[in-house]
Design brief:
mainly alpha; 77% helix
Length: 111
Protein backbone atom coordinates (compact mmCIF):
# COMPACT_ATOMS: atom_id res chain seq x y z
CA UNK A 1 0.00 0.00 0.00
CA UNK A 2 1.36 3.43 -0.89
CA UNK A 3 1.10 6.44 1.36
CA UNK A 4 -1.59 7.96 -0.85
CA UNK A 5 -3.60 4.71 -0.82
CA UNK A 6 -3.37 4.69 2.97
CA UNK A 7 -4.38 8.36 3.06
CA UNK A 8 -7.43 7.66 0.89
CA UNK A 9 -8.49 4.84 3.22
CA UNK A 10 -7.96 6.91 6.36
CA UNK A 11 -9.93 9.82 4.97
CA UNK A 12 -12.85 7.43 4.47
CA UNK A 13 -13.05 6.69 8.20
CA UNK A 14 -16.00 8.45 9.81
CA UNK A 15 -14.28 10.14 12.73
CA UNK A 16 -16.34 12.54 14.81
CA UNK A 17 -14.66 15.69 16.10
CA UNK A 18 -15.96 18.08 18.74
CA UNK A 19 -17.79 21.08 17.30
CA UNK A 20 -15.46 23.86 16.16
CA UNK A 21 -12.15 21.97 16.41
CA UNK A 22 -12.16 20.47 12.92
CA UNK A 23 -8.62 19.87 11.62
CA UNK A 24 -7.04 20.85 14.95
CA UNK A 25 -8.68 17.86 16.62
CA UNK A 26 -6.53 15.44 14.63
CA UNK A 27 -3.40 17.15 15.91
CA UNK A 28 -4.65 17.09 19.51
CA UNK A 29 -5.61 13.43 19.31
CA UNK A 30 -2.26 12.56 17.73
CA UNK A 31 -0.46 14.30 20.61
CA UNK A 32 -2.58 12.33 23.09
CA UNK A 33 -1.60 9.05 21.38
CA UNK A 34 2.07 10.07 21.34
CA UNK A 35 1.84 10.55 25.10
CA UNK A 36 0.31 7.11 25.53
CA UNK A 37 2.99 5.53 23.33
CA UNK A 38 5.73 7.35 25.25
CA UNK A 39 4.33 5.99 28.51
CA UNK A 40 4.38 2.45 27.09
CA UNK A 41 7.99 2.91 25.90
CA UNK A 42 9.07 4.21 29.33
CA UNK A 43 7.52 1.14 30.94
CA UNK A 44 9.43 -1.10 28.51
CA UNK A 45 12.73 0.73 28.99
CA UNK A 46 12.39 0.60 32.78
CA UNK A 47 12.27 -3.18 32.76
CA UNK A 48 15.57 -4.89 33.66
CA UNK A 49 16.06 -6.32 30.15
CA UNK A 50 14.06 -3.71 28.16
CA UNK A 51 12.65 -6.47 25.98
CA UNK A 52 9.31 -6.02 24.25
CA UNK A 53 6.69 -8.68 24.92
CA UNK A 54 4.11 -9.67 22.32
CA UNK A 55 1.44 -7.86 24.36
CA UNK A 56 3.55 -4.68 24.44
CA UNK A 57 4.23 -5.03 20.70
CA UNK A 58 0.46 -5.20 20.11
CA UNK A 59 -0.06 -2.10 22.26
CA UNK A 60 2.67 -0.22 20.36
CA UNK A 61 1.27 -1.35 17.00
CA UNK A 62 -2.13 -0.01 18.00
CA UNK A 63 -0.78 3.30 19.32
CA UNK A 64 1.54 3.84 16.34
CA UNK A 65 -1.30 3.02 13.95
CA UNK A 66 -3.52 5.64 15.55
CA UNK A 67 -0.68 8.19 15.50
CA UNK A 68 -0.16 7.45 11.79
CA UNK A 69 -3.89 7.81 11.13
CA UNK A 70 -4.09 11.22 12.87
CA UNK A 71 -0.83 12.35 11.26
CA UNK A 72 -2.17 11.36 7.84
CA UNK A 73 -5.37 13.32 8.41
CA UNK A 74 -3.33 16.33 9.59
CA UNK A 75 -1.23 16.10 6.41
CA UNK A 76 -4.44 16.08 4.34
CA UNK A 77 -5.84 19.10 6.22
CA UNK A 78 -2.57 20.88 5.39
CA UNK A 79 -3.18 20.38 1.66
CA UNK A 80 -0.44 17.79 1.28
CA UNK A 81 -0.33 14.08 0.47
CA UNK A 82 1.40 11.42 2.51
CA UNK A 83 3.50 10.36 -0.51
CA UNK A 84 4.58 13.97 -1.02
CA UNK A 85 5.67 14.35 2.62
CA UNK A 86 7.47 10.99 2.61
CA UNK A 87 9.35 11.80 -0.62
CA UNK A 88 10.30 15.27 0.60
CA UNK A 89 11.72 13.79 3.82
CA UNK A 90 13.73 11.13 1.95
CA UNK A 91 15.14 13.76 -0.43
CA UNK A 92 16.00 16.07 2.48
CA UNK A 93 17.78 13.29 4.37
CA UNK A 94 19.68 12.19 1.25
CA UNK A 95 20.80 15.77 0.61
CA UNK A 96 21.84 16.16 4.25
CA UNK A 97 23.91 12.96 4.14
CA UNK A 98 25.51 13.98 0.85
CA UNK A 99 26.35 17.42 2.28
CA UNK A 100 27.78 15.91 5.49
CA UNK A 101 29.93 13.45 3.52
CA UNK A 102 31.33 16.33 1.44
CA UNK A 103 32.06 18.35 4.59
CA UNK A 104 33.72 15.36 6.25
CA UNK A 105 35.76 14.60 3.12
CA UNK A 106 36.94 18.23 2.94
CA UNK A 107 37.84 18.24 6.64
CA UNK A 108 40.09 15.22 6.19
CA UNK A 109 41.83 16.84 3.19
CA UNK A 110 42.85 19.83 5.27
CA UNK A 111 44.61 17.69 7.86
Amino acid sequence: MTGNEYQTNVLGFDLKYPEGLGPFCTLLRMMEKIGMMSSTMVDILNKPDASITNKERDILRNELGEILMYLTRTIHHSGLTLDEVMQYNVDKQNNRQEYESIINRDMFKRR
